Amino acid sequence: xxxxxxxxxxxxTWPGEETRVTEMRRDGSTVWHVLDGxxxxxxxxxxxxxxxxxxxxxxxxxxxxxxLVGAVYRLFNALVTGGQIYPDRARMDFALEDLNKERVAAIxxxxxxxxxxxxxxxxxxxxxxxxxxxxxxRLAKDLLPAGITEVRVVEIEDYDAQADGGTHVANTNEIGRxxxxxxxxxxxxxxxLEIVLEDPGD
Length: 202
Description:
There is one protein chain. The chain has 202 residues and is α+β, with helices and mostly antiparallel strands. It is 23% helix and 35% strand. It has helices at 52-76, 101-117, 128-132, and strands at 10-14, 17-27, 30-36, 47-50, 80-85, 90-94, 121-127, 150-156, 160-163, 178-185, 191-197.
């Protein structure tokens, strides 16, 4: 988890036994796996199995939000004020005063155009200095910790690039059609868009 992404789930197996990992928690630098079942004995050789379908769904939604953020930025020059990803939907908040039906339709159309074009999604690293003098953030507030000297950038090739630390699909054509299902007024100059994705083959 972290950065609005839900933590992975899955299974832990060891000789003669297995348990489900239902969530993850952090305590400083320590990571705890929350189990729904027995705890492996000390010294046991444990094999972890990731719930790939869930992880891949989260990756699709994460990449979809990057497309959405790029679309809103290009159309209305609006920055992000918040967001959250779930396995079956996602939301993003923008510094926008107005979000009428015409604007929502334009955002949805632009996002789906980019998804359908099949842009590669690439990762690169830049120095903090390059990041601070670039157009690589879409956040309304600067959230980069002081000690960071190198910034990971996720680029939707020939469309958009943003600082980011999460998991993504390799190409926008893996995302599937994006639908805006809900909009909310979250206060002055703050509008929320909630999205769902259709499977790429649908």
